[in-house]
Amino acid sequence: MIGLLIRLLIGGLSVVISAYILPGVSVDSFFTAVIASVVISLVNTIIKPILIILTLPITIITFGLFLIIINTILILLVSSLVPGFRVDGFVNALLFSIVLSLVQSILRVMTK
Predict the structure, then answer these.
(1) 3-state SS assignment for residue 37
(2) DSSP of 50-101, one letter per residue?
(3) Are 62 and 10 in contact (CB under 8 A)?
(4) Main-chain phi, psi angles of 85, to 5 degrees
(5) Which helix (H) or strand (E) holds 102?
(6) Please, what is the angle between helix 2-21 and helix 30-54, to 10°?
(7) Tens digit of each residue's pLDDT (9 = 90 or more) over 37-81
(8) What is residue 28's three-state secondary structure?
(9) pLDDT 10s digits, 17-30
(10) How far apart are CA 56 and CA 48, in angstroms?
(11) Three-state secondary-structure class, residue 27
(12) What are the boundaries of each domain within the chain?
């Protein structure tokens, strides 16, 4: 139970930090950031594997670089689903995806 709470806080903090770093991303509150983090996790767990299978040929041709495009599209999807979490455009979603991964990795290493 404590582990889940820590992961929720790390996810929310990662979204807030990433939104603070990037000018094209905004989050209304920390609670909205936690909700966005949960929705990003759910989308990555449920929808992303399906998209990976459907786009396997292009992913193989691009040596896996197409996975970055899939992440970007999923961030835009989450932005449209979560009120208070806004990402302006494809490039900002791409940058947010990269920065979010880096920030989450740093925060997870710091909490272990």
Answers:
(1) helix
(2) HHHHHTHHHHHHTTTTHHHHHHHHHHHHHHHHSTTEEE-SHHHHHHHHHHHH
(3) no
(4) -115, 115
(5) helix 90-111
(6) 90
(7) 999 999 999 999 999 999 999 999 999 999 999 999 999 999 999
(8) coil
(9) 999 999 999 999 99
(10) 12
(11) strand
(12) 2-107
Q: Of 63, 105, 71, which Cα lies nearest the Cα of 90?
A: 71
Mean pLDDT of 76-88: 95
Instruction: Classify residue 26 by its DSSP letter.
Output: E
Q: pTM for this structure?
A: 0.89
Is 112 in a helix, a strand, or coil? coil
72: how many CB neighbours lie within 10 A of its CB?
Answer: 20
- Give, to the nearest 10 degrees, the angle between helix 66-81 and helix 30-54: 140
Look-up of token digits 């302006």: 88
Measured CA distances, 102 to 43, 80, 82, 96 (Å): 19, 23, 22, 10
* Residue 79, CB-side half-sphere exposure with 13 Å CA sphere: 22
At a CB cut-off of 8 Å and minimum separation 6, what does 91 contact?
24
Q: Is 31 helix (H, G, I), strand (E, B) or coil?
A: helix
Tokens of 81: 């689903």
